Amino acid sequence: MLSFVNAESLDGWLDGATPSDVAAATELRASLAVLLRAHSGCALDAGAVGAAEAHLRQVATRYPLIPVVGADACALVPAHDGAFGLFARVLGAVTDLAYRGAWARAKVCKNDTCHTGFFDKTRNTSGLYCSPACSSQASMRAYRNRRKAA
User: How far is it, in rounded angstroms, from Cα 60 to Cα 134?
Assistant: First the structure.
């Protein structure tokens, strides 16, 4: 969450955050991570994606967004300030990706030691790793495992 706050220049939005806000942020992050793993083709429990989607639908009702329409642009803005507003902004960013047809490109790195979220910029959405370094690590790990098994 802190990296999102810093990237979006939202200084002060987490002032006064409570332990329940931290727990809510953790749950929101976990649900989004499940969906990003699904986009990456990771093996998941049968009900994990459905549970994450249900949780995000419930969260969206707690942290509403308000459409603001103008002559030059329109935007979804949080109905609340603080942590609630921050959570709404995260959901708004997801909504924006989905609206642009890019939500499936939001993935999590398949390198077992990384799991960093990334935006897949490949032409055919086949990216599996966040960087060439992670791709190389995963390839070398697979190579060593094949050599060990032989």
Answer: 33
pTM more than 0.70: yes
Kindly state the tokens that stand for 138.
């995963």
CA-CA distance, 74 to 147, in Å (whole number)? Answer: 56
Span 46-72, pLDDT tens digits: 899 999 999 999 999 999 999 999 999
Judged by DSSP in three states, 108 sits in strand
30 is written with which tokens?
Answer: 């976990």
Locate tokens 């806000």: which residue? Answer: 21
Measured CA to CA, the distance from residue 86 to residue 65 in angstroms comes to 11
The domain ranges of the chain are 2-106, 109-150
User: Of 105, 101, 110, whose CA–CA distance to 130 is shortest?
Assistant: 110
The tokens describing 31, both together, are 């649900």
Q: Which of these, 51, 34, 31, lies nearest to 42 by C-alpha position?
A: 34
Structure tokens at 87: 């959570």
Cβ(93)–Cβ(76) below 8 Å: no
Contact indicator for 65, 79 with CB cutoff of 8 Å:
yes
